[in-house]
Amino acid sequence: MANSAAFKKVRLFDLAKGVADMVPSAPLMLRHAPGLIHRPADARRTIGSVFAHHAGKHPERPFVRFEGATTTYGQANAIVNRYANQLAADGVGVGDVVGILGKNSPTLLYLTLATVKIGAIAGMLNYNQHGAIADHSVKLLGAKALVYDPEVTETFESISPELLPPHTYDYAAFDAACATRPATNPAVTETLPASTNAFYIFTSGTTGLPKASVMSHNRWLANMSGIGGMAVRLRSSDTMYIPLPLYHNNALSVSLGAVLAAGASVAIAKQFSASRFWDDIVLNRATAFCYIGELCRYLLAQPPKPTDRSHGVRLAVGNGMRPEIWDEFSSRFGIKRIVEFYGASELNLAFVNAFTVSKTAGFCPLPFKVVDYDQETGEPKRDAAGRLRAKRKGEPGLLIAEISDRVPLDGYTDPSATEKKIIRDGFKNGDAWFNSGDLVREVGWGHIAFVDRLGDTFRWKGENVATTEVEGALDADPSVEQSVVYGVAVSGCDGKAGMAAVTLADGRQFDGQALAERLYETLPPYAVPLFVRIVGAVEATSTFKNRKVDLRDEAFTEIGNDPLYVLRGRAEGFVAAYDGYVADVAAARAPRG
């Protein structure tokens, strides 16, 4: 858990300074303020109509920059329309799902816009998922069509063929099918209400296999107005660089929303590279970028070079910027504004650093509470009367968000999964609150500071990792009798790294290279645990949860005589723990691959 000394108390002076900084952006903010005050679900306004409006008004303006090449709004809209009309010809209609599987590219973005233009739902598949996990995700989508990037053929081929929809294309086949389709705007776009669902974003939630959280157009428009228009405040001449995968809300909702709020440009990186980051920024003439905390740490770990300052970036937007590196990051790279925010794919509100208060996760005008919680289970704690108790300002507690007609919850595709996250009758009969699963501090004037993540999920590399998913992969290995997985803090790193306490099957020896190879085949790389502790039998009785808490508290330092192995990377696998491993992880020297 982070040290309380790292958190900033927000003062009235901080807000006044933030308001003064907003003055040059007043016209943009005034344009988007109504979208926060009144955003009816039946309004005929969607992501597709916003994009089409910009394309019609400024067709010559740059929209996408990729590897040095530029596509205008008009050119991109023509491609998007051909894609949309092909999907419609395949029978995809309002409320249907299109599975989209690929690395970052203009094509991936065009497919996403095409899907939402016809009222369908873009199912943003994570190309790091393979085999059974990929099958699970495809089943959840129930897509009518699926389009995949040839660069992720290995992932595509791991999906069971019987689960694929009748219309399945790779990029080349889809482009060929679209060649004769009209480039005109689909008529249906202007008829769609904002309540229409737009995206399925996969998240681990708090436990189990990935869940598909729902992003409606209305909620996306709230992101566009609140985070994009009121906080990020791009100019139409700006270019937002996206090094994060487009299957994440950081990229697809926050960053694209900020771009379309201003009619600005987006620059897409195929994938993040710490060594090439600033060179790509310069190549694509970016003036802003999105981040997660790990990305910032990796950039700071790079040796200084001229491009650290010879770029045009003036702001960054993202989440997970550690307070202790905030000033160093801003100073080294000359970033004038850091727009930190807090949110989750399934959460019905977001905090954003609109007032540019350093070292905070931002401000939210919507109703939330920070409440007492059970330190063993992570669940909200109720008093003798069955009610929740709010924590005092500055005290860490569980963040919960009120659910109401004003602030509805999109939830997951699975209603039972959604219901598990809802707290009912918390402060009075009939009220409802969404359990974020996160510990925060309220630091004044509607601002919070992030503290830690609770439950059977931990956050690593900007991703939520479900412990049960990793345990399932470990337990499937013939050498493993039983495993317990939990997140542990690693000095110099954001989030929690995966650690597993493993009991070996009778007669089996630990083979670190073979185990790592199997885990890399079944889990995304970020979910493969960094530490494996070999232990005796782990209690599977009612005390199991308490034992898991003990193991988590012992981490990788208080392990007695238990053998400990660490992940060197895909090639070397797990090796005996050695001095300096934590430093290697912090400096991104391990794990490799």
Describe the 3D structure:
The structure is a single chain. Helix content is 32%, strand content 23%. The chain contains 18 helices and 26 strands. Helix 3 crosses helix 4, helix 4 packs across helix 8 and helix 9 crosses helix 10. The longest helix is centred in the first third of the chain and has 17 residues. The protein is globular. The two termini are 28 Å apart.
Quickly list its features:
593 residues; alpha/beta; eight-stranded mixed sheet; 18 helices; 26 strands; 23% strand; disordered N terminus
Strand order across the largest sheet: 2-1-10-9-11-12-13-14
* Beta fraction: 15-25%
If you compute it from the alpha carbons, what radius of gyration comes out, rounded to the nearest whole angstrom?
A: 24 Å
Number of strands: 26
Mean pLDDT: 90
Number of helices: 18
Low-confidence stretches: 1-5, 540-546
Structural class: alpha/beta
Oligomer: single chain
The level of helicity is: 25-40%
What distance lies between the first and last C-alpha atoms, to the nearest angstrom?
Answer: 28 Å
Main sheet: strands, sense, barrel:
8 strands, mixed
Overall 3D form: globular
Organism: Gordonia defluvii
Domain AMP-dependent synthetase/ligase: 51-387
Family: Belongs to the ATP-dependent AMP-binding enzyme family.
Protein name: Long-chain-acyl-CoA synthetase FadD6
